[in-house]
Specification:
Blueprint (H helix, E strand, L loop, with lengths): L1 H11 L5 E12 L9 E17 L4 E6 L4 E6 L13 H12 L7 E7 L9 H16 L6 H16 L6 H8 L5 E5 L4 E6 L5 E11 L3 H22 L11 H6 L6 H26 L2 H19 L4 H10 L5 E7 L4 E9 L3 H16 L4 E5 L6 E4 L1
Parallel strand pairs: 3-5
Antiparallel strand pairs: 1-2, 1-12, 2-5, 2-6, 3-4, 6-7, 8-10, 8-11, 9-10
Helix pairs in contact: 2-3, 2-4, 3-4, 3-5, 4-5, 6-8, 8-9, 10-11
The structure holds alpha-D-galactopyranose (GLA).
The site of alpha-D-galactopyranose has 11 residues, from helix 5.
């Protein structure tokens, strides 16, 4: 933190008044369940984004990324539209979302420093939204409950950026707890309980380094499939509001009323909700092998039902079945590229990473990047 404060002072010639920090997240189980008001098991990671801020007079804001030295400037009166490819969109979007809630912030000089890998499926965008929000809260005395800050971040994605995502990323970045997975309910938007990974195990991320061009439209299409199935189930049983209210048995019973492609998508989501609770049970019983098998099952369902995997992710997960020290692996996050997570014995993690990288290169001719992830605490802010 002191580094960033020093960089800020040197660059802007004044001291910042607050520093906020928000972590990236890992989705452990519960794929595409959040916007269906379902359940997830997730964690905040040790990698985070820090945001320092000092209010200034006028309407012009300056924002610098001290990692690569890129700087953007914008006028608070001209931020209605995002600019293509501009990382500050995630900050401007927060200002717009606050405006829509009747909250105006003043101009500021800001600086960020992030260790969350970009476009890797660890929610660098949520970390930026949440750190910006928390910095604004401290600098401009904004009192919003934590869950509302998560909704502000989701609003940036949904309204400013056009991705119809759920609350998982921002929620995990805010509510994450050191050394624990959080079980979240996205109907009540609360953490139901925390559950620790048993000692001696850790999560390794392997990045497929693939990002398909149509990720956002594919993502939004999946959401529409889920909504169509929920509507069909509502016609059968008015108590059904979203896929959260549907079991796999019920889906099977009414299978012939649903388009087959939509049925498969819904089976994935409903199965994921079920796997989240099975997973918590297994962890609580100390059955880490059983938990690992659920991760593999989740990936199979992504691949065969939800169609949000890709050959590179399938290869990484397939390799996980043959390299010693790994108990389970799956794609994590939106899919269509991005990352896979691997549950490994901590003592073997270094060897595992090396062997996975080598085997992946042999099979595909491409590199993968592995990251050993510590489970970190949620977002925070300090006034200086
Ligand atoms: C992305 C979205 C989340 C969630 C996951 C899939 O990370 O931003 O809201 O839907 O995909 O579970």
């Amino acid at each position: 933190m002191s580094n960033l404060v020093e960089f800020f002072k040197q660059h802007y010639g004044q001291a910042p008044i607050a520093v906020a920090s928000a972590p990236g997240r890992l989705e452990i189980l519960g794929n595409h369940t959040d916007y269906n008001e379902g359940f997830t098991l997730s964690a905040a990671v040790g990698q985070n984004t820090q945001f320092v801020i000092a209010p200034v007079a006028g309407r012009k804001c300056r924002l610098r990324d001290f990692r690569d030295g890129s700087q953007v400037e914008f006028d608070l009166d001209h931020i209605d539209q995002p600019r293509p490819g501009d990382w500050s969109n995630y900050v401007k979007g927060v200002i717009i979302e606050l405006r829509q809630r009747g909250i105006e912030i003043g101009a500021f000089d800001g600086g960020i420093l992030s260790t969350v890998p970009l476009s890797a499926g660890m929610s660098s965008s949520a970390a930026l939204e949440v750190s910006a929000g928390f910095a604004f809260a401290a600098a401009f005395d904004i009192a919003l409950p934590p869950v509302e800050w998560a909704k502000v971040g989701r609003g940036v994605e949904n309204n400013y950026m056009g991705l119809k995502s759920g609350l998982l990323d921002q929620f995990s970045s805010i509510y994450g707890q050191a050394d624990a997975l959080i079980l979240s309910d996205f109907r009540s938007n609360e953490v139901l309980k925390t559950v620790a990974l048993p000692h001696g195990y850790m999560i390794v991320v392997a990045n497929s380094m693939v990002k398909h061009n149509l990720v956002d439209s594919e993502y939004n299409d999946r959401r529409h499939s889920c909504e169509r199935v929920a509507a069909a189930m509502h016609a059968v049983d008015p108590k059904v509001k979203t896929l959260r209210d549907v079991s796999s048995a019920m889906l099977n019973e009414y299978k012939d009323r649903i388009d087959h492609a939509d049925y498969l998508k819904a089976m994935h989501v409903v199965g994921e909700d079920e796997r989240v609770f099975l997973g918590v049970d297994l962890l609580e019983k100390g059955d880490i092998k059983g938990f690992g098998r659920l991760l593999f099952a989740s990936h199979e369902s992504s691949k065969n039902n939800f169609a949000n995997s890709c050959p590179e992710l399938d290869c990484l997960v397939e390799l996980a079945t043959s390299i010693p020290g790994c108990l389970g692996a799956r794609l994590s996050g939106g899919g269509f590229g991005g990352i896979s997570i691997h549950l490994v014995e901590a003592a073997q993690a270094d060897t595992y990473c090396r062997r996975l990288e080598e085997a992946y290169r042999l099979q595909t001719g491409k590199p993968t990047e592995t990251i050993k992830c510590a489970i970190g605490a949620g977002a925070s802010v300090v006034k200086l």
